[in-house]
Amino acid sequence: MSAASVEQPHDDRPLIAEANRLRDRNPGYRVEIIGGQILVSPSADGPHGDVLTELMLPFLSAGLQGTDTRVIQAFGLWLPTGAEDHAIPDLAVVDADYRDHYIENGCYDPAVFRLVLEVTSSNYQTDLRTKVSAYAEAKVPVYVIVDRKHQRLHVLTDPAADGYANHQVHAPGQMVALPDSIGAKVSLDVTALLEAGKH
Length: 199
Fold this sequence. Notes:
The protein is of the alpha+beta class. The chain is 25% helix and 33% strand. It contains four helices and 14 strands. The chain has helices at residues 14-25, 46-61, 124-137, 190-196; strands at residues 30-34, 37-41, 69-73, 76-78, 86-87, 91-95, 102-104, 107-108, 113-119, 142-147, 152-160, 163-170, 175-177, 187-189.
C-alpha cells in the first residue's frame, strides 16, 4: 500500500474548489469529479437508503466490520483518472487501516478498497458506464451495482485497462456469492435488494 499523501491546498485546483462550493451550497447532494467533469447527484430517496440498509446486513453478519476490514457508506475514493478526480461510492468494504491512507478532500487511496457498491438513482448511467471505467482504472477489485431501473444486480471483477474483465448480471430469484477477496463469504439476495429499492 502506498504512503499517505499530504493534503494539498485547493486554491490551484479549480475543479475541487468548485466541487466544494457546490457541496456547501447543496447539502445532501453528492458531488464527484470523474474524468475531469463535476457530477452532482441529488439526495437519495427512501428506497435507495432501504437498499443500503438491506445490504449492510450480510456484510456485517459476515464479520466485515472488524479488525481487518470496515464497511462504510459514502466513503471517498481518490481516482487515478485525473488530477482532481474522486468518487463517493454508496458503500465500500475497505482495509481497517484506511485512516493511514488519506489523500485529500475526504478521499482515500484506492489501494485500501476491496469492494465498491452503487445503488442506481435517476443518474443510473453514471453508475453503469462512467464509474465502471473509473473504478477499474483505480483497480478496485470488486464493483457491485444494484440496478433499480433495470431490476438487475451487476457484479464486476478483474479490473482491466478499459473496464472489468468479468461482468456478471443477476436477475431476481438468484443468490449471488461475492468473491472471497473482500475478506469474508457474503451472499446477496437479488430479490430482497430489488424489492427494497422499489418506489
